[in-house]
UniProtKB/TrEMBL annotation:
It is found in: Membrane. The keyword Endoplasmic reticulum does not apply. It is a multi-pass membrane protein. The chain crosses the membrane at residues 45-65, 77-98, 134-154. Residues 39-167 form the RDD domain. Keywords: Membrane, Transmembrane, Transmembrane helix. This is Transporter. InterPro entries: RDD. The lineage of its organism: Bacteria, Bacillati, Actinomycetota, Actinomycetes, Mycobacteriales.
Length: 281
């Protein structure tokens, strides 16, 4: 029976796990899954302790300077204003400036190899850093970090309250990105793939193919692996003309399609770049 694309909506599952995207995977424009794992709660706590210690040192230093100035002027209003300004500078302005200029790295993040990113994995801006710092004054300094730890412990990406409000989360910046399922063109299918009309696949289909190719070697059941590959090839049938050569292995067909799509995307980017150069001359 022909299985069309509308009949295949969910992830492919098998007894050893799930073939597809993990919950923390992000997808590039070429539908390549990138694993951006969130930082563990332990790392976040250590990083937070470093940031809090630095903020308190800066705050104490500013208060000491303010006290000296206030005493010399003998003006209580100036002294109170200087104390308030010191708190704002140490707890909000400085953390916001550091995270904004470093694109998501506080001093604690630098020490632990972490980085704050947006929920879509893009670099944070001033608004995100300011929101995190502002909320952090309450959840970390006023309530001694208890709301932050509880929230991070129960949230899916170990987010504290400031992350939930700002739309951010913290990743392990020193871990290299894992590209899921780099397809290799089977030589005997190269000519077919080069001349085939491969239509625009949905993001969901492209991601499933990448996920399957990435995890196929770990599926020990040959029959099951072949059945999963056949199901995916059937979903591609309406998008590919002519059909793959008779007798072609389904896993090889998926590799050929993925590799050819990557090659054509690379050529398109090259053409776009050449056009830009000509326009800007």
């Amino acid at each position: 029976m022909h299985v069309g694309p509308t009949m295949y909506a969910g992830p492919i599952t098998y007894t050893g796990g799930t073939v597809g995207l993990g919950r923390n995977d992000l997808v590039s424009g070429e539908a390549v899954a990138l694993d951006l794992p969130p930082a563990s709660l332990g790392r976040r706590i250590v990083s937070g302790v470093i940031d809090v210690a630095i903020a308190l040192v800066v705050l104490i230093a500013l208060i000491w300077v303010s006290a000296k100035v206030g005493v010399s002027l003998r003006d209580g209003a100036v002294l109170a204003g200087a104390f308030a300004l010191s708190s704002v500078l140490a707890l909000i302005v400085l953390p916001t400036a550091v995270e904004t200029l470093s694109r998501g790295k506080s001093l604690g993040h630098w020490a632990l190899g972490l980085r704050t990113v947006r929920d879509d994995a893009g670099p944070i801006g001033f608004r995100h850093a300011f929101t995190r710092s502002l909320v952090g004054v309450v959840e970390i300094f006023v309530f001694f970090g208890v709301p932050a730890i509880v929230c991070a412990a129960i949230s899916r990406k170990d987010k504290r309250v400031g992350d939930l409000v700002a739309g951010t989360y913290v990743i392990r910046d020193r871990r290299s990105l894992e590209v899921a399922g780099t397809a290799v063109m089977p030589p005997y299918l190269a000519e077919w793939a080069r001349t085939a009309d491969i239509g625009v696949l949905t993001d969901h289909q492209a991601m499933l193919i990448r996920g399957f190719l990435h995890q196929a070697p770990s599926i020990r059941d040959d029959v099951l692996r072949a059945a999963l590959a056949r199901q995916l090839v059937q979903t591609l049938a309406p998008y590919i003309s002519p059909a793959p050569p008779a007798g072609a292995d389904d896993v090889d067909v998926l590799n050929a399609v993925a590799a050819q799509r990557r090659h054509r995307e690379w050529l398109r980017l090259q053409r776009d770049e050449e056009l830009r150069r000509r326009v800007l001359r």
